[in-house]
Specification:
Distance between the termini: 27 Å
Helix content: 25-40%
Radius of gyration: 24 Å
Structural class: alpha+beta
Strand order of the largest sheet: 3-2-1-4-5-9-8-7-6
Largest sheet: 9 strands, mixed
Number of strands: 9
Amino acid sequence: MRHQNTVFHGLLKLVPRGDFERLVKKHGMDVRTRELPTWTQFVALLFAQLAGTVSLRDLVTSLQSHLAMLYHLGAKPVARSSLSDANRDRSHVFFDELFAMLLARLPTQLPRRMRQAVRLIDSTSIRLNGLSSAWARFSKDVFGAKLHVVYDAQAGRPVYFVVSKANVNDITPAKTIQIEAGASHIFDLGYYDFGWWAMLDAQGCRIVTRFKKNTRLAVVAENKVTKGNAILSDRIGHLPERLTYSRKSPFRDPVREIRVRIEGGRILRLLTNDLDAPAQEIADLYKSRWEIELFFRWIKQALKIKRFLGTSENAVRIQIAVALIAFLVLHAAHTIYGLVDGLLAFARLIRANLTHRRPINTLCQPPDDPEPRTNQMQLELAPC
């Protein structure tokens, strides 16, 4: 009988093994390593994400019951102590770079037509328990971390992330982001920093955010708006010249204030440095910020970033990085194979069939159907 690999094996084909090993060699990850190679560690952690495993003991038990699968994946049996030590001691930087490498390699859906690249910037809090108190203390009885993400609204996936302690202000890691010149950057009040805005503006980026209530605008011009529309006013002016402690504002260029009424009757004061685009376009861009909120909800619902397999800072960072890698792999597989509408439904389909021995493109067919069906997207975007 012809051997058939598992669905998990099919997903791992999207991770180029040669590029992975080159990255391992670059970081010296497997130097003087005998029991648990980095590839096996990654396979185990990715399996945990896709299978919904909630503890190290459950993960090791599950993998022990699928030794043939591990063999065909080029991985070794996993001991709980070895995996725990690797998560604690092997630098999370390797997995961060693996995320960046896969981002460039994996196929994605065709982007929607927009004038500029759109980058949504936000963070989400991740609760931890008292075992992480040595590094993740927020207050007396609260422990946690923050996941900061730059999200590509056109491709529907994150393009950059960083993990910080829960008490770090959002603007601090934002200043370390490599800015994509000319892109539209949409963010909320957590990134209220005139100096950072000035840097974005200097690189030709379009900014869309909100005014704080106490920020005044020195109006120099007012654009006409249609009565009865959601756009209530459209004014051009300057931000305050002085900040606290008599510091001069670094952002001296004119900006726009667009007042828009949203559902429920609330009025928002939107701020942008784009003086020419239609006001409705700016309002729609700010509304698109909801997509990153949906992304955060998705990964917390479908992946494992609520319960962790380790308590050290490095172990938590590794698990978050592997969770985002799992998202990239699922996103790419959904782009290639389709099968069901919606990425969440696809993730559930994969989870239910993860260790089944059948091609991914036959998951929606009866098990005895001999003819796998290939769609046009699969032929065009199949990874090399």
